[in-house]
Amino acid sequence: MTAVAVTVAVLLAVALGLTLVRIIRGPSILDRAVATDVLLAVVVAAIATEAAYSRDATALPVLVVLAILGFVGSVSVARFAARRNDK
Amino acid sequence: MTLDAVLDVAASVCLIAGALLCVAAGAALLRFPDLLARMHAAAKPQVLGLLLVMLGCALRLRTGVDITTLVLVGAFQLATAPVAAHMVGRTGYPHGEIRRDLLITDELAPPLDRTSSARSCPPPPPARSKRQAGPPHLSATAGAPRRRAGGRWRRATRTTAPSSAVGRDPAARTGPISSDVRRRGLAGRPRGSRWRWMNR
User: Fold this and answer.
1) Do B26 and A18 touch (CB under 8 A)?
2) Which of B19, B75, B89, B179 makes an SS bond possible with A11, Cβ 3.0 to 4.6 Å?
3) What is the interface pTM, i.e. ipTM, of the complex?
4) Using alpha carbons only, what angle is made at residue B121 by residues B115 and B125, rounded to the nearest 5 degrees?
5) What is B30-75 written as a DSSP string?
6) CA distance B28 to chain A (A)
7) What confidence tens digit (pLDDT) does each residue in B117-146 have?
8) Alpha-carbon gap, residue B21 to A9, rounded angstroms
9) Cα radius of gyration (chain A)
10) Any idea what DSSP says for residue B126?
């Protein structure tokens, strides 16, 4: 199981790096909102992997909170902040 | 091979597949050309990868409360990812975030002419000012109220005078989308050429 955990950790770290590059380079705030959504989903996957690795369900409520937070974040950015782009 | 070992192997496969899908979503997010494609990467492979990770975690934990929590997280992702993607795409479309030369079809163009003219329509050109005078209580000040006055006028024209050249001919439709294209430095092409794939 340790090899699986290390593999998943490396893959998720690569995904986090790619998503962070998009957040930094994103030409508009909507790209950044989408990339932040993906970033949060990758973090959720990482926490779930940690819970699966250690058979410890302590962090599982955090997953629910993060899922709700990602949705609210991207929707509120799309709803309100994007108008600032429009000159 | 006991049941525990089988379930652990299945959980490992699910976790690795989910992580691979997360990497695919990240790479697509980095390499795809415009907002809609990136939104696709964020909406579909990312959610599938997350569901696979949840499945792997549930196979590994194997207790009722934890599986309920994980199912809750997965159901929430499935319910909210389309809504978030829809809102992002709907917001990005009239703001010029989307490369229209990559679109195969543009079903949002007629309704977005109305929606975006209410939001981001530049002031109408003065050549057609006979029909473009907004309501006086809206065009009293400059800036955003004037733009909104243009939007009001456009919607009123669509509904009250549909036989005008603006309403009928799709090639002559001068909505704010083509105005936006013109403003962004792609001028010189004929009218209606936001369907650039047609003119090739």
Assistant:
1) yes
2) B19
3) 0.90
4) 135
5) HH-SSHHHHHHHHHTHHHHHHHHHHHHHHHHH--HHHHHHHHHHHH
6) 9
7) 666 555 444 443 444 444 444 444 444 444
8) 13
9) 15
10) G
